[in-house]
Amino acid sequence: MSTSSNDIKTTVGIIGAGPAGLLLARLLLRAGIESVVIEAKDREYVEQRQRAGILEQGTVDVLREAGAHERMDKEGLVHDGVEFLFNKKRYPLHFPTLTGGRSVMIYAQTEVCKDLISLQLKEGGPLLFETKALGVDGANTPNPSIRFERKDGSTGTIHADYVVACDGYWGVGREAIPKELCQDYERTYPFSWLGILADVPPSNDELIYARHPRGFALLSMRSPTVSRYYLQVPAGTDAKDWSDEQIWDELEKRCETTDGWKVQRGPITQKSVTPMRSFVHEPMAYGSLFLAGDAAHIVPPTGAKGLNLAVGDVVTVARALKHKVQTGSDDLLRAYSETCLQRVWQAERFSYDMTNLLHTDPNATPFEDKLQIARLQRIVSTPSAETDLALAYTGFPL
Ligand code: FAD
Ligand code: DHB
Q: Residue whose CA is closest, atom 9 of ligand 2?
């Protein structure tokens, strides 16, 4: 890499330091390929942004192979299952039994990002915070470039052999692909998730996905002393409209059981609302430009696939770049979009099904409500249906 003021030359220019961009930089470093990462926000913002919590087995394996596992293996919580709760009864699903030994890990996206940032700053190439990509030029040529602007208003350019846009749903990378070559597939939902962090030990050892006539609730966790809970709320809800007491009352109602078990209350330290969207952008590549993670696809959070899909993309692009450097063949790079989209559509299907299985639709008829319960009943009473869900939840092959 060479830099002269704001004119930078490297092999791979990466836009975005979310989990996708950070992990890609790490994988490329391990493959001996230079990269430069630019990120619009500051380090603290990226490290504190509350999002995903569940890492699939394959994601955990990749982080270990990338040497980004030290703290994860100490602090991450291995989970062997989840429970479904409906009609006031809890139904456990045990993943290792159903999947031949697979499980998931609870280790927050914030912590994955902190670990990768600290490794990148210590061992990797440049990671420039508060540096916003304005656009990608020459995407369809062997010399693509990224125009950027720094916080002080100065502008510059990264000249690269490849650009990977890991800049999330609101990023600029996608715009460099001519509209006539693109197809977007999208669905929005009439509800959002109100998410809280609370300083109280998790009320249950395993995650609980609760279907209730009042709406969906999810009980997750971040550590033995911090709980992460979600409530289905109407789209457009403002988190400030919910008092702490209302949130606990609602969680208690939606998670009521006949066995006397109850959600434990504690101080709420953070509240936010997440809209729900399904979105896929095709193709995920154009010439020397590759899209990875939320820049190319969004899933509704039910089933926890977003971060894991982003990991799948960057593993695929890193492998393809390594293949190109080592053999001169760009076969894998050319297959990138098709390869990723197969996995992406499986995750889209799973997340859509999980969302529809568990959320109450304000417009559903009593007949549709009964069908929803029948679907849940079928899953928890039929080994093949349980296995299908457990295999998808613990992760599609990378
Ligand atoms: P992002 O994390 O969005 O990162 C993109 C980065 O690019 C950002 O840092 C952004 O600032 C930067 N950027 C954008 N534009 C520019 C620009 N022009 N120039 C420079 N930088 C730019 N997924 C799971 O797998 N498991 C879960 O349990 C889970 N739970 C979730 C719960 C919630 C409440 C939410 C909201 C999401 C959840 N997800 C989950 C989804 C997951 O968080 C995302 O899929 C994941 O963040 C995608 O990573 P990414 O790196 O592709 O994108
Ligand atoms: C979490 C988020 C999810 O979307 C999910 O399905 C499970 C857990 C979480 O943030 O812990």
A: 53
Which string of DSSP letters, residue by residue, matches 254-295?
Answer: HT--TT---PPP--EEEEEEEEEEEEEEE-SEETTEEE-GGG
Q: What is the C-alpha to C-alpha distance for residues 337 and 284, in angstroms, rounded to an integer?
A: 5
Q: Do 15 and 128 fall within a single domain?
A: yes
* CA of 219, nearest ligand number: 2
Domain extent for 198: 189-275+361-394
Residue from 82, 106, 307 whose mutation best tests the ligand 1 pocket (most atoms within 8 A of CB): 307
Listed in sequence order, the residues at least 6 apart from 183 whose beta carbon sits closer than 8 Å to its beta carbon are 281, 282
Q: Is the peptide bond before 283 cis (omega within 30 degrees of 0)?
A: yes
- Does residue 305 carry a catalytic annotation? yes
Residue with tokens 């899933």: 299
398 residues of the chain, pLDDT tens digit each: 544 568 999 999 999 999 999 999 999 999 999 999 999 999 999 999 988 889 999 999 999 999 999 999 999 999 999 999 999 999 999 999 999 999 999 999 999 999 999 999 999 999 999 999 999 999 999 999 999 999 999 999 999 999 999 999 999 999 999 999 999 999 999 999 999 999 999 999 999 999 999 999 999 999 999 999 999 999 999 999 999 999 999 999 999 999 989 999 999 999 999 999 999 999 999 999 999 999 999 999 999 999 999 999 999 999 999 999 999 999 999 999 999 999 999 999 999 999 999 999 988 999 999 999 999 999 999 999 999 999 999 997 77
Do the beta carbons of residue 127 and residue 119 sit within 8 Å?
A: no
Q: How many domains does the chain have?
A: 2
Q: Is 278 within 8 Å of 169 (Cβ atoms)?
A: no
Same domain for 213 and 71? no
DSSP-derived 3-state class of residue 8? strand
- The single residue of 212, 297, 305, 324 carrying the catalytic annotation is 305
For β-strands 7-9 and 2-4, DSSP reports them as antiparallel
Same-domain pairing of 373 and 244:
yes
